[in-house]
Here is the input.
Amino acid sequence: MTSTLAFLPTNFQSQSPLFGVLPGEIRNEIFSYALMQYEDDAASYPEDSYWYRPGFAGPRKANSALLQTCKAVYTEGQKVFLRDLEWAFWFGRGPPGRSGNAACVRFFRSLSPQAAQSLEKVRFFTQMYWLEDGSNLRRIFSQPQFRPSELTITIRYSDWWWWEEDAPMTMKETWLRIFIGSPGLRKLRVEYETLSWKKEEMMRIVERNKKWKLPVRSDVDLNGFQGYLIAEKTPLLEWTWKGTSKLDGQTWRHHSKGEKEDGTVEYIVVTDTWDFVQGSLDTEELRGRGLLDEYKYENDDEDDENDDENDDEDDDEDDDDDEYEDDEEDYSVGE
Here is the structure.
């Protein structure tokens, strides 16, 4: 992966109309359309899988043939490719190859500094056990090459605690209390999803979480902050979709409350957005949240090996290195 996401030295090809006539803004538009991502219909996910939903009905791909024409196109076009493509990872109940801490950390460590700077959009699908205590987010945020400007965290209906038993919806605030965003993070979206008839129950959590202010770490002073993310004035966005009432081939008794004649249920998704604000949070607030204490980033190999072993135990599916490399090829550009 390192070789496919590195920026290569090139000669400017003034004899080519693409570079000698068209301005950079037009070239970027061309690259954007030519490298546009799409869902691979030939490898569609089962509709009853835990990771099937609108926008994720199959693996996302992009046709990178244009980038293989010459080094100049590769170098310039790859920046657009990385900028426009949203890179998704699942933490529990995800498709093979992009699930678990190990796959995510391995991917970002493989990026060159230039590629890391160009990659702007990342999405995490997080089960509650992975998200709630905040330690997993902190570990990934501490990776030097994890520098997206936009992060979306999606909590699917099947990610909530004890959804199988229709238990009351709960979410600890620990992950918000200890949240320290990676340098350069300018927008955080959190998507909350549940069955439509449980909306009111979910909204109590959404409104509570909306009040948190989330600091973003400085890339100069590891104990300092660039600013913070705030959602108090941003509108909530809602949308609904219909999906099968079965999940992983199983029928759940409580789904019958809202099941349609065609065997589907309606899901509601509420998205909240935190935007970046330059400035400092109240010192006493930060101290009360323990964010002014010495913060150690655990990046040594021994800790990574221990974390990877824990990932294998926690994830619902095995994260095989070969599967990861195969899946990775769908997203990488040609050499």
Observations:
- Confidence is low (pLDDT under 50) at residues 1-5, 294-335.
- The first strand starts at residue 37 and ends at 39.
- The CA atoms of residues 35 and 63 lie 6 Å apart.
